[in-house]
Amino acid sequence: MLTPGPGMLFCLATGLKSGPRAGFRAALGAASGEVVHISASAVGLAALFRAAPPLFDAVRILGARGVRKNSVALSDSPDLQAGSSQ
User: Fold this and answer.
1) How many helices (H) and strands (E) does the chain have?
2) What confidence tier does 4 reach under pLDDT thresholds 50, 70, 90?
3) How many Å is the maximal CA-CA distance in the chain?
4) Torsion-angle region of 83 (φ positive above 0: left; ψ -120 to 50: alpha; else: beta)
5) Domain segments of the chain: what residues?
6) pLDDT, position 62
7) Is the separation of the CB atoms in 22 and 15 below 8 Å?
């Protein structure tokens, strides 16, 4: 991640306004919210894939194709050619 998101900005603003203890509590709250959202996403996807197994296979195959495409693009990168110096 290159730029801070709204959670990071919230923690920073809270810490600057109310002190480090409040900033730490804001960070704990933001992290707790992320855990809840990630868990809900995982449960929802699990239910969706259980209800429609072909959808899981499609996502798995598309993911494998994406990994393969990225690995081929990376192996063709001029930075990885023999004799390059850094």
Assistant:
1) 3, 0
2) confident
3) 55
4) left
5) 6-75
6) 96
7) yes
Q: What is the signed CA dihedral for 31, 13, 5, 33, rounded to 10 degrees?
A: 20
Return the structure tokens found at 70: 């990225």
Is-contact 49 61, C-beta < 8 A?
no
pLDDT at residue 9 tops 90 = yes
| Rounded CA separation 34/6 (Å) | 12
Would the pLDDT of 82 be above 70? Answer: no
pTM: 0.61
Instruction: pLDDT band for 3, please (50, 70, 90 cuts).
Output: confident
DSSP at 10: H
Please say whether the beta carbons of 34 and 22 come within 8 A: no
**Is the CA virtual torsion 59, 64, 69, 74 positive or negative?**
positive
Q: What is the rounded end-to-end Cα distance, in angstroms, of the chain?
A: 25
